[in-house]
């Protein structure tokens, strides 16, 4: 389940998942998108979902020789506020600590 943070008028999401082909954990930063309107009728449903990731940290967990990396996605410019980048990198640092 993604974690969300609001900065200004934008909502961001960070989610963690394991990528079998990479043998690594991925930590993804995206702008959050509204959940489908029909979900509003479901008690306890989420209001937002993670959108397409524009930053992905890859944290290997099986090969100690591979170092963590950060990948930038998308075409064009994406502006990431400093506080959001710090939040994302804190999440990445915690993932590296757990896997290291």
Low-pLDDT residue spans: none
- The number of distinct helices, counting runs of at least 4 residues, comes to 1
Indicate how many domains the architecture comprises: 1
The value of Rg in angstroms is 15 Å
Residue fraction in strands? 35-45%
Largest sheet: 5 strands, antiparallel
Basic shape: globular
Task: Determine the fraction of residues in helical runs and give it as a percent range.
Answer: 10-25%
Mean pLDDT: 94
Q: In which order are the strands of the major sheet placed? A: 1-2-3-4-5
Helices and strands: which structural class?
alpha+beta
- Please count the beta strands (DSSP E, at least 2 residues each): 5
End-to-end C-alpha gap = 23 Å
Following the backbone from N to C, one meets helices and strands in this order, namely EEEEEH
Please outline what is shown here.
The protein is α+β, with helices and mostly antiparallel strands. It has one helix spanning 82-99; strands spanning 3-7, 10-19, 24-34, 48-60, 69-72.
Overview of the structural elements:
With 100 residues, the protein is an alpha+beta fold. The protein has one domain. The protein is 18% helix and 43% strand. It has one helix at 82-99; strands spanning 3-7, 10-19, 24-34, 48-60, 69-72. A 5-stranded antiparallel β-sheet has the order 1-2-3-4-5, covered by helices on one side.
Describe this protein with a few key phrases.
100 residues, 43% strand, 5-stranded antiparallel sheet
Question: How is the secondary structure organized here?
Answer:
Elements: E1 3-7, E2 10-19, E3 24-34, E4 48-60, E5 69-72, H1 82-99
Antiparallel strand pairs: 1-2, 2-3, 3-4, 4-5
